[in-house]
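Entry 14. Ran structure prediction on the chain below.
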Amino acid sequence: MATVKDQPAHAGHTIRLKIGGQEVGRAQSVSGRRSFGTENQYEIGSIMPQESVPLRAEGSVSLEKYRIRGKSLAELGLSSYGIGILTMNVIDIEITDKYTGDIVIVYRGCTLQESSETFQANAMSGENATWLYLSADYGKPESA
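Output, structure tokens:
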């Protein structure tokens, strides 16, 4: 049986999450999304598209984690409860493989879009945040 570090597939337990260079503990999930605003182009007199053209790039990344005393996203300066959003800087979110140290993906220039917390009786408390990012890559920024 192969050890975890020898297996080629990424699993949730092989990922370290760094936000703004700071490791965030106990992240339960990270979901990155991107859209390219692709639209079909048509010729006059034809109902069939002739080509599809990406017109804009839009991306978001969402994080779900357990809420840790003294280390909430807001206390780490990565989220806000109100007017603090106006003084927050952009951050980079980096996901690395904890066994190899290789970068899996980096979301660059992230700005907070929304955040929330959950508190329930007899359950772990959690928090969620979604950021819009300017670009994403695998450790080396793409060029046009």
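Residues 2 and 8 are 10 Å apart (CA to CA). Will compare against last week's run tomorrow.
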